[in-house]
Design goal:
TIM Barrel; 12 strands; cytoplasm; 8-stranded parallel β-barrel; alpha/beta
């Protein structure tokens, strides 16, 4: 099971949002590059890097940071935010990313995903589905940094992704993000019941190492570690050791 320590960047600072709300932001003192190096020194093999400014306004801004991370550590970087075109995918890969996280663009242009997989390879693209459950129980897919309703539902999108050969899926229950409520294991079981071929990364609400194990037991192949990790609620080295034994 791969663990992805997350660094969310807004206006050059490490921040965390609650439930994707830009008005509910917590900023942290450590600089993004310093934090990335600390995670690398602890033994992390992957980093999840998010450009929150780009997620809201478009135009990926973290290429210099991405290059600095990949040239000063052995970590592989999965990154996204504001990917609005295939040219953005190519530019982020050229800047040193191992995988580009494609969210809103994939939902708005699902017919183009197969072409991206063919050009860049299934291991270079992570599709991000940020899900919000409506009052009627349906899972909806918001876009544009979770600020707009796409009008699409989770289940048909999952069937499409599995059918065209997507390998990596980052799935976030927006209501759990930044809350330390624990991951939505029922959501991940639901996702994998529909599309068992996908390698799912759990995201949103992970608060301790037990949650990482629970996500693994629910079928997830990875977990994104955000607020709990950055606030020191568990140690990354212990989490990595536990994940290696899952």
């Amino acid at each position: 099971m791969n663990l992805y320590p997350a660094i969310d960047v807004r206006a050059g600072r490490v921040v965390r949002l609650r439930q994707g709300d830009f008005e509910q932001e917590t900023a942290y003192e450590e600089e993004p590059l310093t934090l990335a190096k600390r995670y690398a020194d602890t033994g992390a093999r992957w980093l999840h890097l998010v450009d929150l400014d780009a997620a809201r306004y478009g135009g990926y801004t973290l290429a210099p940071l991405l290059r600095a991370i990949t040239t000063t550590s052995w970590m592989r970087v999965q990154t996204g935010g504001g990917v609005r075109s295939e040219a953005d995918i190519e530019a982020i890969l050229d800047a040193g990313a191992d995988r580009v996280v494609v969210g809103s663009l994939a939902i708005r242009e699902p017919d183009h995903i197969a072409g991206w997989l063919q050009r860049y390879g299934a291991d270079r693209i992570t599709i991000a589905l940020d899900a919000r459950q409506a009052g009627n129980g349906e899972w909806q897919l918001p876009v544009a940094g979770w600020t707009e309703d796409s009008g699409m539902r989770l289940e048909p999108m999952l069937e499409h992704l599995a059918g065209i050969g997507v390998r990596h899926l980052l799935c976030t229950d927006v209501s759990r993000d930044g809350t330390l409520m624990g991951p939505n294991l029922d959501l991940y079981r639901h996702v994998l019941a529909i599309a068992p071929e996908l390698q799912v990364q759990a995201s949103g609400g992970i608060r301790d190492i037990a949650d990482i194990v629970s996500a693994h037991d629910a079928g997830c192949r990875g977990a994104v570690l955000g607020k709990a990790l950055i606030e020191g609620r568990f140690s990354l080295d212990r989490a990595l050791h536990k994940a290696q034994r899952c």
